[in-house]
Amino acid sequence: MIKVQVPGTSANVGPGFDAFGLALTIYNTFSFEEKTDGKLTIRGVEKKYQGTTNLVYRSMLKVFKKADHHPNGLYIHSDVGVPISRGLGSSATCIVGGLFGANALIGSPLTTEELFDIAVEMEGHPDNVAPAIFGGLVVSLNDQGKNFYIKSEVHPCFEFYALVPDFPLSTSDARQILPKKINFSDATHNLSRATMTYLALANGNEDILKASMKDRLHQPYRKKLIAHYDVITRKARDMGCLNTCISGAGPTILAVNSVNNHRFQPEMAAYLMAKMPGWQLIALFPDNAGVQILRG
Ligand code: HSE
């Protein structure tokens, strides 16, 4: 039996669209066993995810194919801690869990870099799978088929809160709504802000982060898909948090708070309970370890 723990992630962090994301202390844990009963058994998820279309299973097949391995039966169990279709990298955890689990089951023939390449190809963009694999704050790019990444640890002056709505949003719907072309001025607006957001998170520049997280590439379009977005982000700022953004493709809102601002959690919890009782407030810290093989 192999157990694999994968952190949830928050991609984009405002202006870093499809470029960077950070791993957080919220996890999906997958257990794997190779069987000889000729069956695929998937547990821990709804019936509709228990067949051959299961993303963890499809990811495992990629590794088996590359390693020319042919299992005669598999058992997969998912212990789900990352909310599904909420912008916290749930599908990336399935891809990374399946790839690393399959690889560990058969004696690790593929390198982490090879698994990273497959994960990026499957997800279509790297900003969730990269931090899920490497942990921390990770910026990555693909150049002529080759993936590159740089990892930094988030400065300990920051803590994060996921404000998770009671409705899902599919990544493909949230990508569909984006324009096919953007203005030159919007591109330049994001370049400096994305760079400074990454560096401010790594270096602990709280004042810069208050200004740098504005985005013009995706949030202005996507916020229309998130009920109460404007009021909640305004309230969060009133409660002293440094900044907010859409987590990944949404609908979760990520609040970046200073560890010294003790008002935010109790005030936001009370506000949500009174006004939007279906929403969850989850306190999170950066996960710097990334994917972990827990038992082999
Ligand atoms: N960068 C991606 C997006 C993350 O914003 O669409 C979602 O998986």
From TrEMBL:
Its main location: cytoplasm. It catalyses: L-homoserine + ATP = O-phospho-L-homoserine + ADP + H(+). Residues 54-136 form the GHMP kinase N-terminal domain. It comes from the Bacteria. Keywords: Amino-acid biosynthesis, ATP-binding, Cytoplasm, Kinase, Nucleotide-binding, Threonine biosynthesis, Transferase. SUPFAM superfamilies: GHMP Kinase, C-terminal domain (SSF55060), Ribosomal protein S5 domain 2-like (SSF54211). One of its GO terms (molecular function) is homoserine kinase activity. HAMAP family: Homoser_kinase. Catalyzes the ATP-dependent phosphorylation of L-homoserine to L-homoserine phosphate. Belongs to the GHMP kinase family. Homoserine kinase subfamily. This is Homoserine kinase. It comes from Acetobacterium paludosum.
